[in-house]
Design brief:
single chain; mainly alpha
Amino acid sequence: MDTSEVIAKLLDEHGQTYADEAGITLRDKPAPLYQLLVLTVLCSIRIKAATATAAARELFAAGLRTPRAMVDSDWQERVDALGRAHYVRYDESTATALGDGAELLLDRFHGDLRRLREQAAGDTGALRELLQEVPRIGPVGADIFCREVQAVWPELRPFFDERSRAAAAELGLPHTPGDLANQVPPKDLARLAAALVRVSLSRNAAEELRAA
């Protein structure tokens, strides 16, 4: 297959964003942006992505879709929601981190991540630093958030983190952000980044693409 065929196969078979998998209809609005932040917190430890997205769905099903709802919830309620998704070992510490992160967001940004975006003023580095002030989110978590939120924050495009670029190189694809961005319309950049990450986490998927 040539490059365009590999890209098409990537998007078709692996191009679901993690926000979509978690049931988040991502828009540039406070609630869905916060839900993406919750998902980022859940993904920021060594745990399977499917477990993290399942945990996010459980939290949202329990009504914890906004920072105010998270702060007002009982710590045990958060632990129980994580437990239903088998988000084990880290359930108690994560329940605490979610509560603390929601309080920080309310105190500093009135619960609206668009204010964090404004503070970063279009500087991706500044945005990543601000994100890392949220409990549990480190450099990898900041990359996860930026990779997904570029779907609705165009100033971040194209955002391909180290993992997605390495996966592209392994598949023989262009592997700089600019060259990858030339392969798809802007609306598909987050999907392509997610697809590359998914393939990097699946030996079988990577081997199938390389063999095609």
